[in-house]
Amino acid sequence: MSSIQKSEADVVLVGTGIMSATLGVLLKELKPNLKIEVIERLDSPAAESSDAMNNAGTGHSAFCELNYTPEKADGSIDATKAINIVEQFEVSRQFWTYLLKKNVLKNPKTFIHSVPHMSFVWGKDNVSFLKKRFEELQKYPLFHGMEYSDNPEKIKEWAPLLMENRDANEECAATHMPYGTDMNFGDLTRQMFSHLGETDGVNITFNNQVTNLTRVGKKWNVASTDRKSGAKREISADFVFVGAGGGAILLLQKADIPESKGFGGFPVGGEWLVCRNQEIVQKHLAKVYGKASVGAPPMSVPHLDTRYIDGKQCLLFGPYAGFSTKFLKQGSYFDLIKSLEFNNIGPMLGAGLRNLDLTKYLIEQVLQSNKSRHKALRAYYPDAKEEDWTLEHAGQRVQVIKKDPSGKGILQFGTEVVASGDGSIAALLGASPGASTATSIMLKLLAKCFKDEFESDQWQAKFKEMIPSFGLSLNEHPELVSEVREKSSEALKIYPHNN
C-alpha cells in the first residue's frame, strides 16, 4: 500500500482561477510569512472559467449590461445593482494598478484593452427603456461620459456593423461608453500565479484532485490524489478556500459544514460564434449588449464583442446557452447527480418549478440549428455571412440554488461566498460578474474569515495602500472617481475611445 505524503500549511487554495489567484496575492501582501498550498486538478492555471474563451471577457461595469438596471413596476429604472457592480470593478482596477507598481503583474497589454461598451436595442418599448436607463445613469458620476443616440448615423459611427443594411424603418437606439474594457482573465490569472509560484512559502501542485475535506479539531485535512501517478497527499491547514468554479459545490458538500446545507447548483453551458476575418474584425471596436430573451439566464444576454485572445483581435457573438450535467467544462457527466443530497433536493425542485421558462429556453437553445444561430447574429449584424463564423465552446457555469426565507428553492444569479461560522473554510459559488469583481469578493471573504486581522490598523492601512478608495463609496465621491480612473488608466495603459 502506497504511503500518504503529509504536510502542513497555513492556507490551502483549491483551484487556480481568478478567485484563488486574487486571494493568494492579497494574503501574501497582507501576511508575507504565510505558507500557502495551491491544488489544481488540471495541468495549468486558469484552464476552466477564467480562460479567455470560457467567459465573456467583459470588464463587467454595468455600462452595457441591461439586466443590471431592471425596470420597476412603476416604470422607473433601478440603478442600485449597476452602481454596486461598477464600484467593484473600479476596486479591481485599483488593485491591478497596485500590482503593476509592485511588479506582481508584468504586462497589462495581454489582459486588458480599452473597448467601448454599448447597449443596443430595437423596437419602441426597448428604445423607451434604454432612454430611461440612460437618463437615470446620468445622475451618477460613475456613468458620466456615456452617450445616448437613436440616430442611425451616430450609431453607425460607433459600431458600423450594427447598421450596415439594417431596415431603415426599424426604430433603434444605443448608448456608448468610452471607458469600457475587454478582459483576458486567463492571462491576468496566469500572471498572478506566476508571481505566487516564485514567492517564498507558496507551493503550487497541478494534476491533483481534491478527494475530501475533513475537520480535525480546529484544522482542516485536505486529501488529494495525483491524477497521473495516483500518489496521495494530505495537507493539514488552518484555512481552506475552495475556488474551484462549478466544482466548488461538490467540494463544499464534502466539508459538510452547516452553512452549506440546502445549496444546490444548476449547470448552464455556452457556445460562441467566432469571427477571425480581419476585414470584418477591424470594422468593429465595441462590446455591444442587447436584451435577454424571455427566460434566459443573465449570462446568456446576447452580445457582439471585440475580443483580444492569444494576442489577436477577433469578434465573438453569443453566448448560446446549453444544458449539460457537467459542473466544469472538463468535468464529469455525473456532477449534477453527485450534488444531489437530502437537504437540497427540495430547494432544487422548487427552483425548477419556479423557472420553467428557463427550462424551456435551454431546451430551445440545445435544439437550435446553425441557421437559427446565425439568424440571432444577424439581428445584431445584418450582413453576417455563415462562412465567416465558427462555433466554439465556452465554459460551464453553475447557477446557485438555495433556500429562500420561506424554505423554498430559488435560482440565484451572481456569486455568493459560503463560509463556516468560524471562518476556517470558504467557497465561492455562482458565476457572472464574478471575475470582474474578484477583488471586492475576496475582500468580503477576508472580512468574514479573518475578522480580527481585517479590522486591525495594519490591515486597514494596507488595504488603503492597495486600493485608494477602500472604505469609501466612489459614487458619493465624484472627485475620487476621476482620480482613480486616471491613475489606473495610465498604469494599465487603457485610454477611453471617443468617436
UniProtKB/TrEMBL annotation:
Catalytic activity, reaction form: (S)-malate + a quinone = a quinol + oxaloacetate
Superkingdom, taxonomy of origin: Bacteria
Keywords, ordered alphabetically: FAD, Flavoprotein, Oxidoreductase, Tricarboxylic acid cycle
GO molecular function, one term: L-malate dehydrogenase (quinone) activity
EC top class, as a word: oxidoreductase
SUPFAM superfamilies: FAD/NAD(P)-binding domain
Keyword Transcription regulation: no
Enzyme Commission identifier(s): 1.1.5.4
Family as reported in the entry's similarity comment: Belongs to the MQO family.
Record protein name field: Probable malate:quinone oxidoreductase
Organism: Myroides pelagicus
Name of the coding gene: mqo
